[in-house]
Amino acid sequence: MHNSSKHLKFLKQFEMMRRLWLTPELAKRIAEHGLEDYPHEACGLIGGVGEQARSIARVKNISEKPEHTFVMDGAEFINAMFDFSKRDEALIGIYHTHPYGDHLPSQVDMREAQYPDVAYVVVGLKNRQPRVSAWEIRNGLAEPIDIIISETEPAPAPPVMSRAQVRATVIALVFSFIFVIVLALSLLPPAPPIPTR
Ligand SMILES: [Zn+2]
Fold first, then answer.
1. pTM, to two decimals
2. CA 146 – ligand 1 centroid, Å
3. What residues does the ion ligand 1 have nearby, CB within 5 Å?
4. pLDDT digits (tens, 9 = 90+) for 106-157
5. CATH match of 3-149 with 3.90.180.10
6. Cα 81 from Cα 76, distance rounded (Å)
7. How far is the CA of 103 from the centre of ligand 1 (A)?
């Protein structure tokens, strides 16, 4: 396959992704990682296919202030990516924890996110009660992604309209509205003759 078409297919796969499916086992392992590394932020990668997470890989946090930020160890990151590709998985998510905070991405998380097509999973560990959410972070802005924790495959998501489809639908609606007006005008009875004397 040509390289750029492979890339395109990769992007297409994620264009549709507005949710992330984790088995309870994988969700538990992410939470356990966070509690083990407490009070440091724990971080790692999620491998899978489409919206389905199949594995997680812990990555060492090499931040100088690991209580407040995370920086993934480069070598471990690359090793995890190799392991994913050996299993025909792609990088579909990046998780990290907030030992003292909630499960929302911080300003730094949004500013420094480098992978617009993966799910950013944020685990809040306030009071050591793991709470989890997932986000798509693009151009410094975070949009929530549905996170589904289930043993069995969730029902397919309703189709998400692409921007081009939304544009086409709006154009079609405008045209049909104009058509209705034109039709209504043409159906008006002819203007009555102005009586003259
Ligand atoms: Zn964070």
1. 0.73
2. 18
3. 106, 109
4. 999 999 999 989 999 999 999 989 999 999 999 999 999 999 999 999 888 7
5. no
6. 9
7. 8
